[in-house]
């Protein structure tokens, strides 16, 4: 159930006392993030195109075949990014395009990615490439997906081919995006392909994905031993709180949910240490399997039962997700203090069709990062989700996350005011009171009036 909404004046968000002053982000690289299935379009045979073809799986009945048509409009999008001053760009390659049939590589698709990567570099935009962002070929899914007996071997073959063919243009890699969201969506709650509902199966897939990352980490460094090669995971982290702090059941469930959703998989992928209920695979040793900590942060979970809860009376976005800027600092600090890796915010953004509060969202979250950086947490990068409105998985085309608005019928791109604000932040290396007055003052978040629960 989505939370119903009201509005709260901009200045009443608790703790945001920084409005009268600008802040600096000197040295932190700023950019945007996308994913191939969400932007490229085209008739690609993947688990997500197959899933979208099943009635009732996508909220608005759309499919990823249209998306933002980025596969054909990549030059236009790259030029637009450059005009906004984007410094870093997180993108993914589509495994289903590159290996449309088992063991058969599409040379033209590799050549197309090389063109895009070359133009990005020519424009001074540093690419960070994700190898698995929720999507893989239909044949891989039909063979059993990550639970197939040969899945890790097939995965390593794919990683090797991509890094061999594109590695001269890419130094920075994300192996797997949000393994916890992929597992809970596809194997626990059944909202993503393959649509299974089994906590036990989900924990099995967790273990396989941890092994997949660890093997890919070693393989990429073996293929590209250059000192600037950087490999990590884009982890989805949330802050959790019990709905009633005095309720022992809420307290216990909060601890269990945090462990199952993020702590165990993060530990396994980062250190090779597998905590219950994950199981270590043969040949994996304890060590360090990340060169940076990729942090995707969107919201906070209030725990009253086994799902994602939002209480009444809190700021929320169009999808009813709580807007809790302090959580970005809390998760970044936890990542640094636990693993001592530089933190890259590989995703952060909000659904706001009217662009009514996205500039405030940016201001609030970037201010939090400026504060934790001043306290010694090495947050080196911030990738805003997303660049252009895109196909938002099970929600379809309706959610609007983009700094750039998209007309799906005409594919026309229009830079929103929040996009112009972000461009100013990049240009200035921070913010000023004048920027606040021009872009943020007067903006307000919607506020939930009922309890909401989301998958």
UniProtKB/TrEMBL annotation:
Region listing for Disordered, in residue ranges: 46-65
Keywords associated with the record: Glycosidase, Hydrolase
GO molecular function: hydrolase activity
Family per record: Belongs to the glycosyl hydrolase 1 family.
Listed name of the protein: Glycosyl hydrolase
Organism: Terrabacter tumescens
